[in-house]
Fold each of these.
Amino acid sequence: MKSIINAELIAPCGMNCAICMGRLLREKNKCPGCRGDDTYKPKNCVRCVIANCEFFKTSHLKYCSANCEKFPCKRLKNLDIRYRTKYSMSMLENLKNIEELGIKAFIKNEKIRWACPECDGIICVHRGFCLNCGGKKEYPIL
Ligand SMILES: [Zn+2]
């Protein structure tokens, strides 16, 4: 499996959908990522208040930022805490990097950060290893 991380797979909250179990674990009915069609998305993601936030309907911006009066909203803060404690990943840090470096540089870094050391797969953020070959990073991901 080839590592595919692109801008379409970076959700408004800063989540990299390419490293999610909902994509990596499934052979069939793969989740297309937050910005894709709802059919094969987890229900929590379809209902997510960030994905459905008015801010994205009324602005040209693609990611949560201080341009939104609610930033960081309760949902974003909760997501961030959950991912930082359980999965060693931070939405707020991702958003900060997207803002400071731009989406292209962010994606370039994400490709390195989540690349499997053993094959051309991607480390799954939820499992902490490559679902393709079981490969792990030698060093902490954060
Ligand atoms: Zn691998």
Amino acid sequence: MPPLGLYIHVPFCSAICRYCNFNRGLFDEGLRQRYVEAVTAEIRGAPGRFGWRPGEARADTVFFGGGTPSLLEIADVAAIVGACREAFDVASGSEITLEANPESATSPFLEGLRAAGVNRLSLGVQSFRREELRRLGRIHDVAQARRAVAAARQAGFDNLSLDLMMWLPDQTVRQWLASVDAAMKLGPEHLSLYMLELYPNAPLREEMARAHWSLAPDDDAAEMYETAMARLDAAGFDQYEISNVARPGRASRHNLKYWTDGEWIGFGPGAHSTLAGSRWKNVSGTDEYVARVAAATPLETERRDLTAEERWQEAVITGLRLRAGISVVAMAESYGVDLDARFGPDLQRFQEAGVVERDGDRLRLTRRGMLLANEVLRVFI
Ligand code: SF4
């Protein structure tokens, strides 16, 4: 069995950003303590639940996501990493990532993280413009983001990722590119560039209407994406996925499991898992999660055994998110699906439109195709 990924969902934030649709709530000190007890118990209980001996199943990535994992205490992070090491054979050289927001990424905290075994930091910078951060409802400022990067380096993090968001309210192409340049200047090993997506009732929608902020036209959004990626190419980054670029050898090993048909177990409220052809999700509410762990009642909701059809669809859809694309021969061997026979006319049409390209056996999205990924990938469902 290839090594697993372990995902730890930390469901707290200091403030709720105006666009956020993740599973999170406002920080509460008492709930933090109960959450840490529950999540460490859930991790320790995993071997028994899956019929393994403690330390039998191998894992090579641990990822603290949220929410805002940097609101945990260092002792909490150490306890959670310790529980992972007790329950799983966490290989030496494993990638252990923690997502942090700049306002909580202080020097003592980052030094403590290193001592607890965290070796990759993902900073939610989002923008290098003060007005944009305010519009999003982020509580950090640009100086804090720069200080967090310097503090991370000083603490010994040599694998640093920065998140940026594009197509923000009233953002111009030039303003966006200035944030990309500012991020590159800080010398991260990895960058994630996301387009803002506004869910139907996002408070930011109302705010945009009130303040008369508009989104740049679609052509500008395309220019934002394509020009940023071209600048990152020129600076020696490798775009390995639709939204992610990295220095050679610094792609996120944990996130690659999601896109390469890997297996992972998620711990904490609302965490998703994929293992042995099944997919499930933990109960979302933190109070309910804590209560269920305490009562030893099942945490799972929405368990599904993936059908053969769902498995190949998923392999195609996630694989095409990667710049490397997919091997048509490997798809036929692993899933018995001949993509050319089944989707020949669609693939031909996409190639003619310049959104898909063929390189021998490999099929991949072009950069333009990555921009239109939702439309292209729909054909496989
Ligand atoms: S910090 Fe992240 S998880 Fe928390 S509210 Fe903002 S976007 Fe959502």
